[in-house]
Records
---
Amino acid sequence: MRTGIITFHRAINYGAILQTYALQKKMIDKGYAVEVIDYRCEHMENFYKTLTFKGKSLKQGVRGLLNFYYTYKKKKHFRRFLNDNIRLSDMVYTKSNIQDSNKVYGQFITGSDQVFNYACSNFDTSYFLDFVTKPNKKLSYAASFGINEIPPKYLDDYKNLLSSFDKFSIREMKGQDLLYKLTQRRSELSVDPVFLLEKEDWLRIAKKPNMERYILIYKLNASDLIYDFARKLANKTKCKIISLNFDFVDELKNRGIKGIMSASVEEFLGYFAYADYVVTNSFHGTAFSIIFHKEFYVEALQKDFKPNDRVESLLKITNLQSCKINSLDDCVLSLNRDFSFSDAQLKTERLNSLKYLESILNE
């Protein structure tokens, strides 16, 4: 019986593509027939267009033009990784034909990204498996809401969509609470798929950078702290600073920081694996810092500057809360990072998550 995974596999986002890769690889390694459904969400396809002026200000449009080459190159890297490393469905699906996938797959898994966050996909209900004809085929793995509450106008839709699932696996405890509030249903708590693979698995595809002694910045959200923190850390350690997800304007504003504007997925992993220090505000930046046992510092805030529950939960599980930063005063070199403890905790979480996966795939 073939299993179809629906997720944000076409997002030009390192975390999104690597969680897709990890979930499928682990399932294939365990001997299961699985494919990622090549679903094209109209909202996300438009969002990741290489050059578009729709809905953008003049300033944003000019910035897009300045970065066109780097954006195009990065997107090309992502599409090549997707085609080379992920088993995709033969059929390309859209909202108009996604129901046809019922003829191909015996069951469906949605996850492990923020598939239950209406804002990410403009509430594309395909990620809630509304097209699946039989409820016992509807499953999730480490699905995330990414929000703490549902806007009133979506409440009834959320309740109806989620109530028809057979089994749930959720990525954060607050997500479990929200699911129970909506449906009175219990769920498994599962790790992000990047933790289903081990350090050695990631090193096999990581590309070692041609540099040494560096501090890596990886930020997704605007931050007044990240760059200044990295500069203070550089003064203490005499390391150079490099930053992923930089663009042309970022480089003009931040002299002395080397921008990596269009890293491939393999290069992304390599920059983490061989960094001396990492400064980040990203969940997956935190995850790979832990996997690779890095001296890392994380600002655990979201775009709206509220606490990042995903990061907070991960730091709590691994007992690495001391790596959280709130100000420049937190730039301390003598932090005690017990990676033997975090490895043991993540191994337990991994085994529990695999137990859930195998239980649903063997039914």
Note: The mean pLDDT is 93.
---
Amino acid sequence: GVSGGEEGARWGPSLMPGGPKEAYVELESMLTAIAATSDSGPTVTHVGPGGSGHYVKMIHNGIEYGDMQLIAETYDIMRNVLDMSAPEIGEVFERWNEGKLRSFLVEITAKVLKYIDPLSDKPLVDVIADQAAQKGTGRWTSQNSYELGTPIPIIDAAVTARSLSSFKDARAEASQLLKGPDPADAEVQDREQTIAALEDALYVAKVASYAQGMNLLRTASVTYDWNLNLSELARIWKAGCIIRADLLDPIMKAYNDDPDLSNLMLSPYFVDDVNAGMPALRSVLGAAISFGIPAPAMSAAVNYFDTIRQIALPANLIQGLRDFFGAHTYQRIDREGTFHTEWMEVYPDAEVIPE
């Protein structure tokens, strides 16, 4: 796996080689010379056996999809809730890049938003068609997450959002027929308070997105017997690749301290920040909903957070329903074993259609 785009090709990418260890040893000096370098060393390591290197690159791209969608939603809220121009939003992202959000994607977001198109004398982003393309790695990440039973809802939302953006004609038709909230009824937000909330919201949503990607890597490592070192993977993403960010330092430390960490958001490096940032995420998501602005990745971040912190979920009702129509059985919380209720004896007049 190779990441870094055009600049990585010129100045050094992040390299994710998989395959036999002895082959890596033979190539290590060459790969180290090619790779970028961060303050944690060359951005290359022996990922693991087989196709693990390509797989890790695929998950890198899935995280990238989620990151870009969250950034786009943040821009959309500033544009349509706060009525800010693209260059004004670019100034905000430029300022954010000096703090906890410092990353390659936030840096270039500022540059893209501030750039004036010489052909139209307008911000270039305002004349770019709103149809995002994709080469498939995000979709493959989503497909594999379903196969491994490891949810990545922020990345799924990003893939879906790109697909929906391609239906321009259908969206144009729907815009004339389907009605959203009346802007006159939406509460005008305080600009500076909302911008501050957006910074916290974007940060905590990014942590949740990375948590989902790292969990998928952990599951894949066990399933495919790859023995992936998640701390080392975070290290080689610190330079040369598209998702390079200051956020990777505490991620690297979190998995170095606890390689079996069940969820990144539970790490002592993140748990306080996540708890502190969630009210901001709920606040900006509420503003988006009240103005009728789609924010699927932010919504997925909130729902993911709220789901994993619940000690009890309504899946008990789902199991009851499955047992009713398909005799799929269920477990109980008050005794061991597998159980089935003879529902037809309880409700003899019920009509049941097999699953």
Note: The CA atoms of residues 2 and 15 lie 5 Å apart.
---
Amino acid sequence: DFGPVARGAQRMVAVLLQMAYTPAPFQYNRLGVREAITKAVWLITEEGYTHVTELDITSHYPSFLMEELVKALPLPKSAILQIVAASSAQWQTNNLPTPLGHHNHLFHTPPLGIPQGSAASTIVAEWSVSKLKMITVIDTVLINYADNFFLFGKCNDSVAFALEALRLGIAKLPGGVFNSHPDKSQPDIVQSVTTPFRMLGCHIVKMKDGVDVSPTETNLQKLNGRMAIKLQEIQATLLQANKLSDSKLRFEGVQEFLRLQSYVNSWLEAFSMCTDIEVFRSDLHYQLDELAYIFGIEKGELEKAKDSSTECHYYPSSAIAT
């Protein structure tokens, strides 16, 4: 649980490290998930790539080693130890509550590697992957986002060969000891793009008339669950406001409506590359319009209720609306 000073230091390290290297052409962290999937669709539809496989780094952040980071990172040793590894932080966990309802706070040593919640960890991981060295295999293309690697090829054999080269390259990445998943013991992980495959929160499959891209069931469940809960909360607030003739409560309900509307628009932007995105857009906007109609929320009232707290934006480097 990092405070503002630690966060500031981590962001400083992130900015400095970003200036010290250039992402590899296959890296899409900064371009974003949408661009990575758009590239995959282009490979399939325009370049004739017919096979795909996925590889990821097992326990990526915990696999970093401090002695290796100190050797390789272009930062002072003290910054690596204190900021990148957060070695002086007190890592706190809560045990079960006591009969009186209180929690006992237990402090333990930092976890292995670089911390999951650090503002600098993503950049350190990207820096490491940018140093990937592997032989070039003809008729294959690599797309990387975070610790996910997708290999596309024009035949099964070329992808399988490139996959072995990728495993060897991952094992030699600087900053730690890295293993990839799935390993060699799992056969038949190369598949045709005519069979649906998952890529960064989407299902992709080549059809006779093109490529179909759709959000995964998990993403749709999260969206629908959030919509259902928020619509009920807003409705309850506005009903109570009408019952009590409470203008302040009404204002709060309208602001909650704006936040949900902003979230919906950001989600639609994040998944704009999906084939049936207009169907999702129509359904989501219908639900919002219906609530606005029932409670008489008009454009002028929405404009008055807008402020920085009612806006969220889609950031391309994030897999979902943030």
Note: The first helix runs from residue 4 to 19.
---
Amino acid sequence: FPSHDRGKGGNWLIKTMKVKLRPNNKQNTLLFKCADLSRFSYNWALSRQEENYANGGKFINDCCLRKMLTELKKSDFSWMYEFSNNITKQSIKDACNAYKRWFNGISSQPVFKQKDKSKPSFYHDSQKLKVTEKHVKLEKIGLIKLTEFGRIPVNVKYYNPRITYDGISWWISVGIDVDQRYIDKEKSAPIGIDLGIKDFVIVSNGIKFKNINKSIEVLKAKKTILRLKNKVRKSKGINGDSITNNSAKTCMKIRKLYKRVVGLRTNYTHKITTKLVNTNPEYIVVEDLNVENMKKGKYLRKLISEQQFYEFRRQLDYKCSLN
């Protein structure tokens, strides 16, 4: 939620919206090809930067790398003309920014994206993105149905459109302008929040929110995941290399159950943060936890990871900014 001033009167925020897509089989294949192109362009740009650095050269600007790739398109990479050039353009920018952050000591050294480990995703030009109430039109792919009608506003400016695949479904995320207008309301007393494992949230006014991971729904889903994992493990044979069609179907069931568990946790966190913000306190105080050091404990590592402390603080942060 970066804030910026647009015109006179009011502070504007960029709000991100994410909606699931419903592509047909042909569109699904094209989406995966676009994601492969994005991964290939990212790795190509990163390899050029590493070779140049090893030879003692200076940092290569993304404009120079895009010109080099354009020349290669005419001979070696002619298959790239089937897809939008904005995909490769943004992937090279992302690789250069990641390399620059590592060189400046801001982040760790970027690594090459692997097909079986990295999340399939690619960028779409905001100027060429067309959104209707029920469809979204992607460049060289066509109209794709949306699962939620009217969720994304029409005829507005979009920021940084990204299409991602979570292992089950394709999603589109865009940023839109939101006018942040403060309305003077009667403030309630400040509240302090304590995060824990036995109870997820303990508020200073005495209200407690239970741990969602101890609920029947989550425990039942985790038990089913464990049973299906054992089923896949037994069906792979001695070497563990042979994967049958039934095993692939079972793996898909496991991914769907994992997604359901994460959805239950995130939805529960949204309910808590919305309820706390709607009380309109003067300010909210949250303890500053060093989660990485807390995870070093042998028995608490998994329990702390499942609590999603950072996600709770992130939601509380942007909802306070909006309200």
Note: The longest helix spans residues 245-278.
